[in-house]
Amino acid sequence: MPTRNAAAQVFEELHTKMGNFVIHEIIPQLLTDLNATTVVTLKELMANKSDIIFPITLPALLKTPID
C-alpha cells in the first residue's frame, strides 16, 4: 500500500506540473499492460480524476478484442 500511495503522489505531482500530457502518456500504457496492479491503479486514478481519465480509457476499454 505505501508504494501505491507514493505512486499516486508522484502521478498527482506530475499532473500538476505537466498537465494532461502526463495522463495521455501514462494511461495508454496502463491499458496496454492490464493486470491486477494496473486495474487497481486505473481504479484509483478514475476515482480522483474521472473527468480527465474516462475520455481516454473508455474508448480503449470498449474496443473489440483482437483475439
Task: Throw out a few tags for this protein.
67 residues, mainly alpha, 3 helices, 85% helix, 0% strand, globular
- Morphology: globular
What does the radius of gyration come to?
12 Å
- Topology pattern, helix = H, strand = E: HHH
* Count of distinct strands: 0
Task: Give the mean pLDDT.
Answer: 81
Percentage of residues assigned to helices = over 70%
Cα(first) to Cα(last) distance is 34 Å
Percentage of residues in strands:
under 5%
Biggest pleated sheet: none
- Uncertain ranges: none
List the total number of helices: 3
What is the total domain count? 1
| Helix and strand composition category | mainly alpha
Provide a descriptive summary of the structure in words:
The protein is mostly helical and 67 residues long. It has one domain (2-62). Helices cover 85% and strands 0% of the residues. Helix 1 (2-18) crosses helix 2 (20-32) and helix 2 packs across helix 3 (36-62). The model has no long low-confidence stretch (mean pLDDT 81).
Write the topology of this structure.
Elements lengths: L1 H17 L1 H13 L3 H27 L5
Helix pairs in contact: 1-2, 2-3
In short:
The chain has about 70 residues and is mainly alpha-helical. Helices cover about 85% and strands about 0% of the residues.
